[in-house]
Design brief:
Blueprint: H1 2-48, H2 60-88, E1 96-99, H3 100-109, H4 112-117, E2 120-126, E3 131-134, H5 136-152, E4 157-165, E5 169-176, H6 183-186, H7 210-220, E6 224-230, E7 234-242, H8 263-269, H9 271-287, E8 291-293, H10 300-306, E9 321-325, H11 329-339, E10 344-348, H12 351-360, E11 365-367, H13 380-467, H14 473-507, E12 516-519, H15 520-529, H16 532-537, E13 541-545, E14 554-557, H17 559-577, E15 584-592, E16 602-605, E17 617-624, H18 631-635, H19 658-668, E18 672-677, E19 683-690, E20 692-694, E21 736-740, H20 744-756, E22 760-764, H21 767-774, E23 783-786, H22 795-809, E24 816-820, H23 825-834, E25 838-841, H24 846-857
């Protein structure tokens, strides 16, 4: 314990030694600072006291600035010395009885001029006649610091100074309506060097010493000081001094008035005068106009400085605007005097005022600190050189920015023009797409009417044949042949329309590919069924050859585009085989992994730079026994409107677009076409494309015969309702089909066809009428056939509203089938997304309509009447060059 006490005592002695050393340091520094200050201020006062006609009169303005700041420095030195004395306990206050109210009023009156010029109401209310023992020098510093602080932070409103008395204390208070002190700063307000950062001050200068010195001084007088403040309301500083002499050591009490001092010494050294002068400077900086453009009235010292800096007129800097932002008015005036002879100078007492000016006016340089800095004190030559350098850099930046803005403007204009061209191109593309769609729709509608009426005539002829005698059978056979010719013509015309529309899509870059898994053999077989009647009529043997490994394989590519190419190949094969002595057409399927170069007499259609990687490749070909092609005829086959030799057959004559369209489709599928032929020895057309193997798809329906329209299924599976067989007689109710179609002819034809098949039908002329019929409780349909393009309400809108109401009312899903001439894949997909269960493309066969309806009414097995076509191994001449990967 004794050891701890000794260690603590030793540490206390060390701290005391450090404290004494600090006090000595402050004293020495104060002394060393006072000596040069005395030598500065003494001669300055002598010069300033010279008469106005003295040779030094021109320098008086600048010397006054020097004298003012020398006194300010002198005050700071005195503050440091006072701190040293107070901390060392060497500050011995001398208490004498004074009229505290009167002396306080005298000190406060020194601020009246500055405060009232600062547009603040100033009130001094001090009760006189009461003697208080106080050190007058110390009290002067206390009052001066508190009033100065109030004025500094009160930009408008009121400052009130009061002296009142209680039974035990004299109370001095100073209240202001300034910016106030944040609560977080109140506990530190009397700490040395603590400063409150706020934007609501007349000046940001200060060392944080004033209030700390005030606090220590009040304590040395035996008094107490506190502060109350609220941000945005104001602050009140209150000092309480005890009355009487009980708190004062007897040796510090003196009687009589303070000793007299000279007026000059009192003016230069009194602490309060320095503070008041500083406050006047705040007001002067706010009220004076500090905008200068110097050319006249320069004194010799300015001219001499100008000669040290190169002429700026060659650099076009004479109209440059320099902004000076500094809260020290003397420094502002000094910088203005240096720069105004060469530049337009705008000076402001704070950064906010400077920023407000810059936001509304042009400026070339801000002298406050950002891109570069000067440490005070600085030389005038250095300031001028720095200003010139930054103005030159600023001018160069402006020129560069102007060029960048010009380039940017040109780029924006170019981009705007480009975007406008793109928008116009997109608008034109959409308009062309609409034209293609309308053309497709308008071409298919009349073809559909012809086709359906031809089928009705066939039904009528079959009925007549069963009810007439043999003598009319020949005539009926001729009529039936005529109807068959009509059907063939419509089928041919439909293919021409499809090719023309596809050609338009190629020109407009609208031709697209939609890959999906499909059963390869079934899809090809369904395409061949389209030609059963025509090949039978022309006595052409049509067969499909495929290896066993490809009979049940699923591949992933675009089945509709593949079928389209195959149809074009078959069209050409039938055309060139119809007049041959031997009439055979063989469709074959192959697979291989590596693409070999084309063989002899083989013409390959592919880009010159095409690279075909190894993988699973599918080849679909058509071999005929026709007249064959010469090399010259082969090379022009795939050009627009090109034909090897026009056919005289009105039903199979070419139009020169089918192979052109096929070539573009194969290119989109990343494949190639090959033609192998010799004149007089038939032709083999084939296309090869890379595909991916796939597994069987759920819900696959083999009964849907492919007839050139997309094989689409609903994205939402429909659950079959219990249904009874359709019948034309008996007690079983026929299934009700609602036909929503705006074309009167199509209405009549489809109504007759469905009624002939045993259905009950009703008709609506547009989508809205169709919805009204659907929701009639006594005549609700079992299935709906709906056109897309209709007045009042189109088919897609009507279907969406139907699905929404079914969901809202928890109604069972009603099968809705689109019957439309809109054949693009995107349009079909839009129909399915709108809620249709399936789509049938015009022109259709009634068997397709009935088959589609049956899929949604009763489950059906694969019809045994549709026997598969004969198949055998492929016999392509170059099959040995292919490497099979299946089987």
């Amino acid at each position: 314990m004794v050891l701890n006490f000794e260690m603590a005592q030793k540490k206390a002695e060390e701290l005391a030694s450090l404290d004494r050393a600090k006090t000595v340091f402050f004293s020495n520094v104060s002394h060393e600072l006072r000596t040069p200050l005395t030598l500065i201020m003494g001669p300055l006062d002598d010069i300033l006291s010279e008469p106005s006609d003295s040779p030094l009169s021109n320098a008086k303005a600048r010397l006054k600035v020097v004298a003012r700041h020398a006194r300010k420095l002198h005050g700071l030195v005195n503050s440091l010395l006072d701190f040293a004395r107070l901390e060392a306990g060497r500050y011995l206050a001398l208490f004498r009885p004074v009229d505290l109210g009167a002396i306080t009023a005298d000190i406060a009156s020194l601020f009246r001029s500055a405060i009232e010029r600062g547009r603040v109401t100033y009130s001094v209310d001090c009760v006189n006649g009461k003697e208080v023992y106080v050190d007058t020098d110390a009290w002067e510093k206390i009052v001066t610091n508190i009033i100065s602080n109030a004025f500094k932070y009160c930009l408008e409103g009121t400052i009130e100074v009061r002296v009142e008395y209680t039974k035990t204390d004299a109370v001095f208070s100073c209240s202001d309506t300034g910016c106030g002190i944040p609560a977080s700063d109140l506990s530190y307000i009397f700490n040395r060097f603590h400063r409150v950062e706020t934007a609501g001050a007349r000046s940001i200068e200060g060392t944080g010493v004033g209030l700390a010195l005030t606090y220590e001084t009040v304590k040395s007088l035996g008094g107490d000081i506190d502060v109350r403040s609220e941000v945005g309301v104001g602050s009140t500083f209150t000092v309480r001094l005890p009355l009487g002499t009980a708190h004062i050591p007897p040796e510090r009490i003196v009687s009589g008035p303070p000793p007299e001092t000279s007026a000059g010494e009192r003016e230069s050294l009194r602490y309060s005068m320095r503070i008041v002068e500083e406050a006047r400077g705040w007001v002067a900086s706010e009220t004076s106009g500090e905008s200068n453009r110097g050319s006249a009235g320069r004194d010799s010292s300015v001219s001499e400085r100008d000669s040290t800096v190169a002429d700026d007129r060659g650099l076009h800097l004479e109209n440059s605007v320099v902004i000076i932002a500094d809260d020290n008015p003397d420094l502002r005036h000094y910088c203005v005097s240096l720069l105004s002879p060469k530049y337009i100078v705008k000076a402001f007492p704070d950064g906010r005022a400077a920023l407000d000016y810059i936001l509304n006016n042009d400026a070339d340089l801000v002298l406050s600190g950002a891109d570069d800095y000067l440490v005070k004190p600085f030389a005038s030559k250095e300031l001028l050189a720095r200003v010139k350098t930054h103005l030159e850099l600023g001018r160069l930046r402006k020129e560069l920015e102007a060029r960048v803005q010009d380039r940017t403007r040109l780029l924006v204009e170019s981009e705007t023009r480009l975007l406008q061209q793109i928008a116009e191109s997109e608008h034109m593309r959409k308009q062309q797409e609409i034209v293609v769609d309308l053309t497709s729709h308008e071409l298919r509608n009349p073809l559909n009417a012809i086709w359906q009426n031809a089928e009705l005539i066939q039904i009528a002829l079959a009925l007549l044949r069963s009810r007439t005698g043999p003598d009319l059978h020949g005539t009926l056979e001729e009529a039936d042949d005529a109807v068959q010719n009509i059907v063939l013509s419509v089928a041919h015309q439909t293919r021409i329309a499809d090719d023309i529309l596809n050609f338009s899509k190629i020109r407009l870059s609208l031709l697209s590919i939609h890959r999906e898994p499909f059963h390869l053999h079934d899809t090809v077989e369904d395409v061949l069924r389209m030609w059963e009647i025509e090949t039978r009529e022309r006595d052409i043997k049509l067969e499909l050859k495929a290896p066993d490994a490809l009979r049940n394989v699923w591949v992933n590519t675009d089945p509709h585009r593949c079928a389209q190419i195959l149809i074009n190949f078959l069209t050409n094969a039938i055309r060139f085989t119809a007049d041959s002595p031997t009439r055979n057409i063989t469709v074959f399927l192959e697979s291989f992994t590596h693409v070999n170069p084309p063989g002899p007499n083989v013409f390959r259609v592919a880009p010159d730079d095409a690279v075909f990687p190894d993988g699973f490749w599918l080849r679909i070909g058509v071999q005929d026994s026709g007249s064959g092609l010469s090399p010259q005829e082969r090379e022009k086959l795939f050009e627009r409107f090109a034909q090897a030799h026009p056919s005289k057959d009105q039903f199979s004559g070419g139009h020169g677009l089918g192979l052109f369209v096929s070539r573009h489709i194969v290119l989109l599928l990343s494949g190639y076409i090959e033609v192998e032929s010799k004149k007089g020895d038939g032709c083999t057309f084939s296309f090869s494309i890379p595909v991916e193997l796939s597994g069987p798809q759920e819900g696959y329906d083999r009964t849907k015969i492919w007839r050139g329209q997309p094989l689409r299924r609903s994205t939402k599976p429909y659950e079959h309702r219990s249904a009874t067989e359709r019948t034309l007689s008996g007690n079983v109710r026929p299934r009700h089909v609602l036909i929503v179609e705006d074309n009167i002819i199509n209405q009549k034809v489809l109504t007759r066809q469905l009624q002939a098949k045993g259905f009950h039908t009703s008709v609506a002329n547009d989508g809205q009428e169709g919805l009204d019929r659907i929701f009639e409780e006594d005549s609700a349909p079992d299935v709906v056939l709906m056109d897309i393009e209709m007045p009042v309400k189109d088919g897609k809108t009507a279907c969406r509203e139907l699905r929404d109401r079914e969901t809202r009312d928890a109604r069972p899903r009603l099968p809705v089938i689109a019957v439309t001439g809109n054949a693009r894949d995107e349009q079909i997909q839009e129909c399915l997304q709108a809620g249709f269960d399936d789509c049938v493309i015009k022109p259709y066969r009634i068997a397709d309509i009935v088959g589609t309806i049956d899929r949604f009414l009763v489950p059906r097995d694969f019809p045994t009447a549709l026997a598969p076509l004969p198949s055998s191994a492929p016999t392509s001449p170059d099959v040995s060059t292919r490497e099979p990967i299946l089987g």
